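Bench log, entry 3. Co-assembly request; chain sequences pasted below exactly as received.
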Amino acid sequence: MGSKPSTAPYGLPLHVVEPKKVRLQIAFQSELDPAFAQRVKWRAHGEAFLNCIQCGTCSATCPVSPYMDYTPRKIVAMVREGFKNDVLQCLTIWLCASCYSCTVECPRQIRITDVMYALKREAISEGLYPKKLPTPVLATEFFKQVEKRGRNSEALLMMALYWKTNLVKVFRDMKLGMTLIRMGHLPLRPESVRAKGEIKALMDGVEKAEKELWS
Amino acid sequence: MFEPAQQNGSPRIGFYVCHCGHNIAGKVDVTAVAQAVARFPGVVLSRDYKYMCSDPGQQMIMDDIREQKLDRVVVASCSPLLHEHTFRTAVARGGLNAFHFQMVNIRENVSWVHDDPADATEKAVDLARAAVRRVRLHRALEQKKVPITPAVLIVGGGIAGIHAALTLASAGKKVYLVEKEPTIGGHMAKFDKTFPTLDCAACILTPKMSAVRSHPNITLWTYSEVTKVEGFVGRYRVTVKRKPRYVIEELCVGCLECIEACVFKEGKFYDEFNQGLGKRKPVYIPFPQATPQLVLIDPEQCIEFKSGKCKKTCAEKCDRDAIDFKQTERIEQIEVGAVIVATGFQTVPSEKVPFYGYGRMPNVFTALEVERLVNASGPTGGQVVTREGKAPKAVGIIHCVGSRDEKTNRWCSRVCCMYSLKLAHLIKEHTGAEVFNFYTDMRTAGKGYEEFFYKVMDDGVHFIRGRVAEVSDWAFTPDEEGKLVIRVEDTLIGRVRRVPVDMVVLATGLEPGPDSQQIRRLFNMSCSSEGFFLERHPKLAPVDTFTDGVYIAGACQSPKDIPDTVAQAGAAAAQVLALIDAGSKELEPNTAYIVEEECSGCKSCIALCPYTAISFDAARKKALLNEALCKGCGTCVASCPSGSIRQNLFQDDEIFSEIEGLLTPVT
Amino acid sequence: MRYLYYPGCSLRSTGKAYEESLLSLFRALDVPLEELDDWNCCGATAYMAVDEDKAMALAARNLSLAERQHGRSGQTQLVAPCSACFLVLTKTDRYLKGNPEVQKVVGRALADAGHSYAGTVTPRHPLDVLVNDIGVETIAKKVKSRLGHLRLACYYGCQIVRPFASFDDPRTPSTFEKLMEALGAETVDWPLRTRCCGASLMGTIHAVGMEMSYSILKEARRRGANCVVTTCPLCQLNLESFQQEMNKQFDDDLRMPVAYFTQILGLALGIPNDKLGFNKIIIPPPMTSGAPQGGEPARV
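Structure output for the full assembly:
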C-alpha cells in the first residue's frame, strides 16, 4: 500500500482499521485472578466491598473522578471480578486524594478510601504501578525521610520529587518556589526527633509483628 | 420398619422420622435414627418415611394406631409451626387424643444448621429420646372453643381499609372503619393517575369511598383513633376516641358555605392534603371529594378558639346550626370478633436526605408534591410549574431516595420505580420538558409494568443508571447558571455527568408510619426489624399476625403498590370471613391454670401477665385466670412462689423428663 | 481543660503562618497550649499508601507521648491543627480500639520502641476546641474590631469533618460559619465548603490539582466572597500559591486572599498583624473596611 494512509477509508479513525492497533477487549476468565478480591479485602481490614450495589455514588461524589481512567465504582467491580492487572496499573488509585467523600456517602457504608489505600499498597508490593507516576514516588520518598528523621521536610520532599520524576515539575515557575523559601515556607534545614532510635525500633517492630501475624 | 422386642402394656409409642426429601435425609442418617429410637423403652414401632406430611404418611400413622394399638405418637420432622396441626389431626383421626403426640424439629434445628452428618444424626437421636420420654406423660386435653362476634374493626381508611370494609360489609358483616384523618382515601386520594394503566385515581377510588359512606353495614368514624383494645379473638372490646370537628356530623350537609363565610378571606394555613402547596382556612374540607362530606375546624388556627372574639361568620351562615364551638371528644366502645390493621405508610421524611437539598433549594420537590401538581384538582389546577410559577424545561427524577441506604432505610421501597416512570410520563405530557430519570436499578416486576417502562422510554425520557450524589446550585459552566445541577455517575457509560435541571423530584421511599409502634402495641403485634408489621408466615400466612383474630393488609406490612394492597385487603377480608363464618375458634390448650387450694393470694402473677389474663377474686382471696385470654407464655407458672400455677402441655414432670432424655448419655 | 499541642511537620514549614497565629490566638484567649515533646511525623496520608501499619505505628507513638506527658488519669486533649495530622491521629486511635489486627501489630511495635498506648487521648482540631470548648460567645465577648468588611468563604476542606470527626455534620457543617459570624464577618453560602482542594495532587499530578483548587476559588468569588478562610496548611498552600499560574492557565484574574481562620480570629481580637503571620502569606485579606476587594498579589 506504499506509505501509510493518513486517514482510513470511509473516514473511520485509524485505530479502528489498522490491525496492529486493534485491541482485543474481551476478558478471558483465565486471565483474571480469582483470589484478588479476597487479598484486597484482607489488606483493607476486611472491608465489605463484596456487597457493593454499583450505584456510582462514590464516583459522583468524588472530586477527582473526572480525571480517572476507571471511576471508583468500576474499580470495585473490577476488584470483585479479579481484574488484577488493570486495577493495579491504573491511574485511579493514585489520583485518590483521600478526601473520604465516597466513604461518607456510600449507601452500603463501604470504606472506599481504605480500599484505595489497600490497592496502592498492593500495587507497590507487586511492583505494578506506573513507574514515572509521581504519586508512588512521593509516597516512597516520604517514607524514606520519615524513617531517617522521624519528621518530614516538605522542601526536601519537593526536591526529591523534582529529580525523580521528569513528568511533572512541581513549580514550573521556579520563582514561586523561591518566594515560598524566602517567606520561610520551606526551611531547608530539616527537623528531626531526638529519639531516632525509637523510630527505628518502631519500624522494625512493625515488620517483625507483621511477619509473625502472617506466618 | 424395625420391630423392637415386643412390649406389653402402656405406653405403646410409635415413632416416625421424616426424610423431607433431601432436606433432612441429606444430612441426617434417618435409618440410623429410626434404628436407635426403636430400642428406647416404650417404643413399639419406629419408621422412616420420605414425606410424613403427605397423605400416605398421615395414613400410615392412623393405620399403625389402630393395628399396633399405639397410645402415643412422636414425629421427627420439620418445625411444629408448619405441621404440628397436621399430625395432631392425623393422631386424632387415628382414634387417640390429639395431645398424646409430640413433634421433634430435626430440620430447622438439625439438618439445616449442622455441617457434620454424624453430629447431626446424634443430635436428632438425642432430641427424639427427649420427646419419647416426655410423650409418655402427656395428658389427654380438650380444646376449648370461643364464639366469634360477627363484627369487624378495620383500622385505617386508605384503599386497603376501604376494600376490606366493602368486601366484609357486602358479605353481611358489621364493619367499623376507623380513620385518624378527617377523610378516608389515604395516599391514593392524592394521586392523579395510577400506573401502569394511567387510570385516574379519583375515578376508581371515589366511588368506593362513597360506597363506604352509604353502606348500611359500615359505621365510618373518621378523625378518630383506637385508644384501647382488650379481650381476645372472637371478642375484642375496643375503645375509639372521636376527636371533635366542632361541626355536628348529623346536621352538616357539606354545602361548604361556612368556608366561604369564614373571616379569613383567603386560605392562610398549611394545606395537608396538598402537601402545603396550597393554603386553606381554619374551617375546611380536606378536598372536594372528601368522605364524609363534612367540614371541620382547626382550633389551633380558628380565631374564636384563640381569642373568643371572632364574628363567627361561619356559624351565622350555617342555616342548619351545625357549627358547635363547644363540641368535645366522644368515646365509643365496640365489641368485635376480628380486627384488620391497614394503617399504611409514610414517605421518607426529606430531613433524612439533606444532600438532595430539599428545603434549602426551592425547586427540589418530593414526589407526593408533584402528584398534587399534576393533579387537575390540585393547587395549580394540573400545571407542573416551579415555585416561581414557570414551566420547567428540564426535570430530574431521583429514584431510591431514602431507600437501599444503610444510613436511612435498607430496603427497596418497591413502588418508586413505577411511580417515577408514571411521573416522568405525566411531566413530559404536561410540560414537554426533558425528563431525566436517575435510577440505581430499574424494578418493574408486575403485570404490564415492564411494558409501561418501554412506553416511557419511547416517550423520549432519559434513563441514567446511577445514584445521585448531590443536587447543588454550583454552576460550573455558563449553561448551569441558575439551574439545579445533578451530579451522578452514568454507570452504564462509566463517566460522571452533571445534568442541569429546573426542577428536581425526589422519589422518596416508603417507611412505617409515625404511629406504627403505638398501633403495634395496641394490638400486640410484632414488627420486623425495619418496623413494618410482621405477618405470621411470609408465604403461607401473609395477612395473619401472631395475635389470633388480628390481620394486616397493605403497606403497613411492607411497601406495596395499589394492586398488591387491594389483593391483600381482599385476603384479609377472606380470612376474617372464614373466622366469623366458622362461628367459633378452637384455642390451643397450652394455657395455664391455677390450683386454687395451693394459691396463697399473693397477687405476684397479676402484674406479670402480659395479656392481663389474671385477676384477683377478692372474696376468696385467690388469683383468677381467664383461659381465653391466656396465650401460654408461662411467665406466671415460672414466677408463682407457691407453685400453684400449672400449664397444660408444659407440666413439670413433662419438662423434666424431656431434659433427662436429652441428658441421658449415649450408650 | 489542658491541651497538648501537636504541630506536625507542615506547621513548621508551609504552615508557619498557621502556627504563629494559632499560638498567638490561644495566648490571647488565655488557653495554654503545651507542645508535645519530641513528637514525630503523624504518619500522613502518603505514608498510608506505602505501609499502613507503619503509618499507624508512627501516629501511635505520638499518642503514647501525649499520655506520658499528661498522664492517663483523664482524657488528654491533643490539638492537631493540620487536617491530615488530625485525621491520621483520630483514625489510629479508632483502629487501635476497634481492629484487633492493627492492635496486635502496632502494639508490638510500640512495645519494641518502649511505648504503649492506653487509649486516653482525644485528637482535636482547633476549630472544634474554639467552638465547642471555649465557646463562640466567650470569643465574641473578646472581639475588639468587628470584621464587617469581610465576606468569608469558610473552607473546611475534607479531612476535619470526614469521616471520623463528630463535632459537626460531615455534609453540611456549620461551626466554622458560626465562629466567623461571631466576629461580625459575613459568610457566603456555598456548596464547596467541604470539597477537596486536590491535596498532594498539586505536587504529583499538577494539572489535576490546579483544576481542583481553581474551581473552588472560582466558586468562592462567584458567591461574592472577598476572602477564603481555611483550616489546613495544605489547602492554604494549594489555594493561594498557584493563583498566578491559574490566571495564566485559565485566562483569569483571580486575586483571592486565602487566610487561616486563626489569623482572622486574631484580627478581630486585636492581635498585632506581625504576630499573626500575615507576612508569610502572599495575598493578605482586606484588613479594614476601606481596603480594596482582595489584596494585591505579591510580586514573585
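Residues 562-582 of chain B form the longest helix (21 residues). The radius of gyration of chain B is 31 Å.
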